[in-house]
Design goal:
This protein is mainly alpha-helical. Helix content is about 60%, strand content about 0%. The protein has one domain (about 10-165): 23S rRNA-intervening sequence (de novo design (two linked rop proteins)), CATH 1.20.1440.60. The protein contains 6 helices and no strands. Helix 1 runs antiparallel to helix 4, helix 2 (about 40-60) runs antiparallel to helix 3 and helix 3 (about 65-90) runs antiparallel to helix 4. The longest helix has 27 residues, at about 65-90. The chain is elongated and about 50 Å long. The chain starts with 13 loop residues before the first helix and ends in a 5-residue tail after the last helix.
Length: about 180
């Protein structure tokens, strides 16, 4: 039986939740693509799911490996942007759906950039689950890692407002 408080740490990440919402949107938007575009649909859907998978997989690794997986998630975001552009150019998406997909995935990218920057700035060892905790260090005034035995379900904070590390996104001109 599933118990609500028995979640893995990554399940408490807001960016993880947003990636699941984005993936649902991609699945919904691609449902009506032509049958002859099976490869485009499959690759677009797989890339959207890959964002969440890289977050989940990386969360169980060392801090440096987690950062690497978060960067792979950003690569999947770039693929999703290309698929969005292709789908729009082929008139499979209207302008409103294209905009919705772009806004959501760029928000996720900004959140990941902030999370990556936060992980880069953490002091301490490089063991799994010991390098990040419930939210930014500034909020807690501490650089001590969370106790992995007691801090099972956490909220890592919303990094969508971290513009210091993502200047290009304020202009919506390019993806880091």
């Amino acid at each position: 039986m599933f118990v609500e408080n028995e979640k893995l740490r990554f399940e408490g990440l807001k960016v993880y939740e947003r990636t699941l919402d984005y993936s649902d949107l991609v699945f919904e938007c691609t449902r009506d693509f032509p049958e002859n575009e099976n490869l485009l649909v499959t690759d677009f859907r797989n890339s959207s799911v890959s964002i969440a998978l890289f977050i989940a997989e990386g969360s169980g690794k060392s801090r440096l490996d987690f950062i690497s997986d978060l960067k792979y998630a950003k690569d999947a975001i770039r693929r999703c942007l290309v698929f969005t552009t292709i789908a729009r150019r082929r008139n499979y998406l209207d302008e409103a759906k294209e905009e919705d997909l772009r806004v959501k995935v760029l928000e996720i990218s900004k959140m990941l950039s902030g999370f990556i920057a936060s992980l880069h700035n953490r002091k301490g060892n490089n063991r799994p689950h010991q390098d990040y905790h419930s939210s930014s260090l500034a909020e807690h005034g501490s650089d001590q890692p969370a106790d992995i035995n007691t801090d099972v379900h956490t909220d890592f904070g919303d990094y969508s407002t971290d513009t210091d590390h993502d200047e290009d996104f304020s202009k919506n001109t390019e993806l880091q």
